[in-house]
Amino acid sequence: MSRGSLMILRRTGRAMLAPVLVLAMAATAPLAAQSTRADSVARGRTIFQSLCRQCHSVTPPAQGAPPMAAIARRYVRVTGSRDSAESRIAAWLSAPDSSRSLLPAPERRRYGVMPHQPLADAGRFAVAAYVVQLGDSMARRAPRP
Ligand code: HEC
Question: How many domains does one find in the chain?
Answer without folding.
Answer: 1
